[in-house]
Amino acid sequence: MQITIKIQRYAPDTDEAPYFQEYTVEIDPHARLLDALMDIKRFQDGSLGFRKSCAHGVCGSDAMRINGQDGLACKTLVKDVVENDGDTVVVEPLRYLPVQRDLIVDQSEFFAKYKAIKPYLINDEKVAEKERIQSPEERLVFDDSTNCILCASCYSACPVPEEHPSFIGPAAIAQAFRFLADSRDQGAEERLPVLDAENGVWPCQNHFKCTLACPRSIMITKRINQTKRMITDWKGEK
Amino acid sequence: MIHQFDTIIVGSGGAGLYAALEASRKSKTAVLSKLYPVRSHTGAAQGGISAALGNVEEDKPEWHAFDTVKGGDYLVDQQAAQILAEEAVQAVYDLENRGLPFNRTPEGRIDQRRFGGHTRNFGEGPVRRACYAADRTGHMILQTLYQQCIKNEVSFFDEFQVVDLILDGTVCKGLVVVELATGELHIFAAKAVLFATGGFGRIFKITSNAYANTGDGPAVCARRGIPLEDMEFYQFHPTGIMGLGILISEAVRGEGGILRNRDGERFMERYSPTLLDLAPRDIVARSIQTEVFEGKGIRGDRKIDDYVHLDATHLGADVLAAKLPDISGFCETYLGLNPAEKAIPVLPTAHYAMGGIPTDTDGRVLLDRGGTVVDGLYAAGECACVSVHGANRLGTNSLLDLVVFGRRAGLHIAGYVKQATMPAVDESAAAEAREFIGRLTDGSKGPHGGYITDEMQTTMMEKIGIYRNEKDMAAAVEEIKELRQRYGAVRVQDTTKQFNTDLLELIELGNLLDLSLITAESALKRQESRGAHSREDYPERDDDNWLQHTLAYLEDGEVRLDFKEVDTSIWEPKPRSY
Do A61 and B108 touch (CB under 8 A)? Predict the structure, then answer.
């Protein structure tokens, strides 16, 4: 089918402001939106800027806003964003992060917030056996949170940073949960104060936008609420 | 701008990050990566990492080493394979201790499952050796290693693309790199440089590899006179999603999935009576292709893009959800199909380079058949050739290769940089890189790279694929040479500096063209069939003449081949059957 892709363009050094450019692409409706973008880049306009790598939803490079919904271009099929021949799909960069070029955003702040929650196993005890023992049930508790590919779709989908830009964001909290809920981890004392801060978990108002956006099907809102309960319990114990 | 570090690591997948963890403890280390580190293609590896833990049944490193050698059709260097299998056990425990969430047995130990070519007692039958985290084992390894790098405050230069290697005779002095965000050239002077740039599956049309897998390390090395080893051996994974090439893990067959042709027949019974669907990948890929050519593909039209079925319906929804959730999701997303209800349409997809930059077992790069070391230059992971994979890699051995040899290279670097002196490098070291990029961006009109990329990938897929012959390969060499000529005139359409991904893709295309030429020439020269290299005109393995590694030198646009002895010090080569 033939579709129009309306893409937000911006080169900060040379453009005064972002603008939209339209491209027409002949594409199989079952193809990925990324395939359509690659078609433009390879055969129409080499100057279009976007990131991509794995092309099947596991590396997180091509997160963008597609018809106002945040997600991965390689996990979005053309038929899911347009209905008929001649329809238009609008593609914009993720929100809240500075645009470096067209659909490419500077993810420094997103990663800085991720690093703030100490996203690594904290446990200084010597391992008694070859591996630490963990039951399948204990592992299941945090299973879905290990799926995160740090694509920042949830971060852009969340309405909270509009009013509260320093909010740590859904991805960082879900990653904190991944360790807090791991039976092998002993880092609660180090992580919970970060999450209990003004910019930590509390600005979250359960909009569920993160959960809906997550291309890895992580129940992010639920993990945030579990983390809130952990903080409440931890404060009760103190 | 000139930077100075003791150690520079290029690439932030499993091998690069593991090496960085070791090297950064003892030396001033920086990791350069064209991607954000967590985007690296290690994260796409699915099925598992093998180690003879013996958690669910008896197993021994010796059996693992033997399987690796036989799986590689005896082109494997055997002492290296033994190191791989022996160090595997501690490597897996180290990953677990650092937080990797492996699937567990009911007793809480690391669970293990079957994988192709991994057997008990030297081939008696399949063994459960692959440790796994659902079907996202590579993702978990990448995440765990990146997490450890954060903990240990490793320095990263994200989105820096390597352009050139600075060599002075047999001493490495550093790198020339372009910063994507600004378009500026940087020189990194370093006592030690490690290439861990991954694979180059993008030379082929249908591949499981990421767009980023363009072989930047091997190509840069080849242009600086370093040979590439065993480049004719390229693995086609038997089960890619029809048309797209997206990987469907061998773990599907490890858990009991069955390949079927249009008659519903389990055709692997005819090709591999003992291991059936869990035969090594080269054998299964050839079997699928043979079925298709004989008209037994699902369409039955004998065309190269016909396919077979991977049947996992009998595994049940629970097993699929617990052990193979991601591939179930891929089927849902890209095929609109639930693998618990319908068979998956699959065909072989270009997957893994057994060949690469020649190294010893400490990751040191070797310049020739005599083993001359390039001081301060290292390689590890898919871009390197140790050689532990020989003519065909076993599933799960790639993740293992990353952690074992990434770690060994990092440890050796930590010792080496203590006694090495910081090389003196000035701006003139970037002259050739500057001229190259200047030419691509000089604003004149030239052909765009898109069509050249397309033609290269089609040529390689059709003529240097699973089955090969003299006529096709000779034609491929000529076609690639012509494309390299055309590449000489390409220009960017994007003339801005910031995030010029047009320039990035042209740099990558130059690398892919060089590697295509070397792969095609190496394949044309090897007149036998061994592992993944199957020739219709030379269908037998020929140990008398070809039990040797190839070393391909790129010289003035031509490829010169030399040969290197294979280490067969443990097991005598035997006919390979399963």
Answer: no
pLDDT > 90 in chain A, percent:
96
Kindly report the number of other CB atoms within 10 A of residue B22's CB atom. Answer: 20
Residue B357 phi/psi, 5° resolution?
-75, 120
Kind of pairing between the strands at B373-379 and B364-366: antiparallel
* Nearest-by-CA chain B residue for A130: B93
Instruction: Describe the crossing of helices B501-525 and A33-43 by its angle, rounded to 10 degrees.
Output: 90
Q: Does B274 touch chain A (CB under 8 A)?
A: no
Q: Is 0.95 surpassed by the pTM of this model?
A: yes
Chain-centre distance for alpha carbon B55? 28
Interval A127-166: pLDDT, tens: 877 999 999 999 999 999 999 999 999 999 999 999 999 9
Chain A residues whose CB is inside 8 A of the B497 CB are 13
Task: Report helix, strand and coil shares of chain A as percent, to nearest 5.
Answer: 35, 15, 50
pLDDT level of residue B304 (50, 70, 90 thresholds): confident
- Return the CA Rg of chain B: 22
| A-chain residues near B498 (CB < 8 A) | 11-13, 100-101
Please state the rounded mean pLDDT for residues B111-119: 96
Q: What whole-number distance in Å separates Cα of residue B215 and Cα of residue A220? A: 36
Q: Is the CB of residue B409 less than 8 Å from the CB of residue B43?
A: no
Out of A22-26, A126-130, B75-79, B364-368, least confident range: A126-130
Model ipTM over 0.95: yes
What is the spatial distance between Cα A168 and Cα A159, in angstroms, rounded to a whole number?
13
The pLDDT of residue B513 is: 98
Residue of B nearest to A112 (CA): B150
**Alpha-carbon gap: B448 to the closest alpha carbon of chain A (Å):** 8
Q: Do B210 and A54 touch (CB under 8 A)?
A: yes
B281 counts as catalytic: yes
Residue with tokens 């090297």: B23
State how far the alpha carbon of B29 is from the alpha carbons of A111, B8, B38, B193, B465, in Å. 20, 6, 18, 10, 39
Which listed residue (B129, B281, B364, B535) is catalytic? B281
The answer, yes or no, to whether the previous bond of B387 is cis (omega within 30 of 0) is: yes
User: Contact, B218 vs B200, CB < 8 A?
Assistant: yes
Contact indicator for A5, A25 with CB cutoff of 8 Å: yes
- Model confidence over B17-28: pLDDT tens digits? 999 999 999 999
Contacts for B424 with CB less than 8 Å, ≥ 6 apart: B173, B189
**Residue A146 parent element (H or E):** none
How far apart are the CA of A5 and the nearest CA of chain B, in angstroms?
19
Please check whether residue A131 touches B, CB under 8 A. yes
DSSP strand pairing (A88-92 vs A99-101): unpaired
Report the residue of B12, B36, B500 to disrupt the A interface, i.e. the one with the largest count of A CBs within 10 Å.
B36
Q: Return the structure tokens found at B487.
A: 């590449």
Number of Cβ within a 10 Å radius of residue A187: 18
Closest Cα to residue B515, out of B447, B475, B456, B458?
Answer: B456
CB B223 within 8 A of CB B357: no
Helices of type H across B238-333: 251-254, 268-271, 281-293, 316-323, 325-330
Nearest-Å Rg of the Cα atoms of chain A is 20
